Structures are given as structure tokens and as C-alpha cells.
Amino acid sequence: MGGISPLSTFVWPILIIGGGPAGLSAAINARKRNKQVLVLAKEQISHKLQAAPKVANYPGIADITGTELGKALYEHASAMGTEFKRDEAQQIVKDGDVFWVMGREEQYQARKLLLAVGVMENKSIPGENEFEGKGVSYCATCDGAFFRGKDVAMIAYLPEAETEARFLAGICRRVYYIPQYRPLPQSIAENVTILSGVPKSITGQETVAAIEIGDQSLSVQGIFIERPGIPPLKLIDGLQIVNEKIIIDENMETNIPGVYAAGDCTGRPWQIARAVGQGQIAAIAMAKELDKR
Predict the structure, then answer these.
(1) Separation of alpha carbons 229 and 292, rounded Å
(2) What are residue 118's phi and psi, to 5 degrees?
(3) For 136-171, how does the pLDDT look when each residue is reduced to its tens digit (9 = 90+)?
């Protein structure tokens, strides 16, 4: 992106969390209305699109892969002047009419927010919530130094986690890498052991002591979990969510003024066409509200 420092006071008119079809559709339509837009996303192309070998139900496009469609959406938004930042929002705090978004890399300010975070993956591993902050972490870059010279595990739900595993390999004695995606990586680093299997539970006393995977019990002092995104309830306090979907009005606005939502996080059907349409509606609504200023 360039030019925005961790302590920048620049306030983005629109900040979009999520780079899938809903977020990119919103970015394109907001740029058409001459609004500056920043998209925060961990992936250039969403993992869900990358996993689709064929998209056959998007109007006007009879045969395209998910990766091809994702690339086309990204290039369209980029050509329109959308700014992108590979970062993950960790927390959102409202301060007057400005939202502070704390990312892993930087802090951002925005007038309007769009949550386009996809399907909410709220299912936790048994023991995960109990040991959060007591050995369980969601950010290797943030907390890896606490486990220098120790044995850790990383449970990865997307390939981008391999970069974080390499970082841990440089400071930890041993890293157990447990990918929940396919295909499995062949090699990451010399002291990284790649294991196939589904994590069953995280155990310990006051802090993490082990993780159960298959019929194995791995002795570790830390566990890092890399998911596509943080559940919205952990991002911002007070957001209305019912049956794992964010509640929105006809303008895609949530119960928190200035915060909008679009795409799979707002419920079924989980279809690209619906996500794109909701992104457009949200962009128009946000632009109109900004014009009132």
C-alpha cells in the first residue's frame, strides 16, 4: 500500500475487512463513487474461492475456476484505485464517529466499516477457549517470542500459515505443523514436523501442556491457531449476531451505526452472486452517508 505508518492519523472514508466477492464488489462500487477505500485481507484471493475448481452458477460466466474469478475481481478493484493491505484485523474500537481497527501489522482509522469476513467459523477446539492467553495464541508474529526455545504446535486452516510457521521455526526448538487444508505441504523448515490429522483437544493445568491429534499426544508449551479470520464477535463488542449470522437492515448496516456487513457472514445462501449484490448495496449506502458529511 505504501505511505501509511503504524501511527498514521489518516482516516479512511471506507475500510473493508475481507477480500472475497462481497468485499471486492463493495470496493469497486465505492471507488465508482470516488471514495477512498482500504481492503484488509490475509489473502489476495480468498481461500474459499481458491478451493472452488469450477464456478458454474455466476450469471454471464458459464465456466470459470474460483481462482480465476477471484483474480478478476481483485484486478478490477485494483484498477479502480482500491488500496490493499495484507493484514488481519484483531480488534475494532469506536471513538466518536471514527473506528480504530487494530491489525497485526498496523492500526487504521475509518469513518465506515464493512465486515465481509465470510462464513463465521466459531467452532473451537476443545480446550481452546480455556487456554486462550495461557498458551493458545492466534498471532505467531505477536506472541512467538514468548515461546523462544520451546516446543509449539501450529494448527493451520489456510496455506498462508506456512509463513508464520517459518517464523516460529526461527525462534522455537520444535514446531509441529498441523494443516487442516489440502494438499499438505511437503516441507517448511528443518525443525518443522508436518502432521496429518484433526486436533481433538488442548490440555494442561494452568497453561498449555499438550495437544491431542489422532492417537498422539504432543507435549508443547504453546499452540498457535491460524484461521481465515477472527469471528466478528471477537472483533467488535455489541454486534448483533443470531444463529451465527450478522443481523443487517436493507442497507446492509448492522445494529452498530457505521458498521455494515455483506456476504456469507450475513447468512445463507452462501452464493457469490448474493455476496456481490450485498457488497454493492453496502457501498452505495456508505457513500451516501459519507456525502451527508
Answers:
(1) 32
(2) 75, -165
(3) 998 888 889 999 999 999 999 888 899 999 999 999
Pick left, alpha or beta for residue 93 (phi over 0 → left; psi -120 to 50 → alpha; otherwise beta). beta
Taking the C-alpha atoms of residue 18 and residue 27, their distance in angstroms, rounded to an integer, is: 11
Find out whether 31 and 77 touch, Cβ atoms under 8 Å. yes
Is the model's pLDDT at 194 over the cut of 80? yes
CA angle 144, 160, 71 (to 5 degrees): 150
User: Would you state the cell numbers that stand for residue 111, as one nine-digit string?
Assistant: 469513518
What are phi and psi for residue 72, nearest 5 degrees?
-65, -40
Q: How many CA atoms lie within 13 A of 150 on its CB side?
A: 18
Q: What is the pLDDT of residues 26-70, one digit of tens each?
A: 999 999 999 999 999 988 888 778 777 888 888 998 889 999 999
Q: Give the span between the Cα atoms of 234 and 171, in whole angstroms.
A: 28
CA distance 280 to 25: 6
CA distances to 113, 114, 230, 249 from 257, in Å: 10, 11, 21, 11
More reliable by pLDDT, 4 or 40: 40
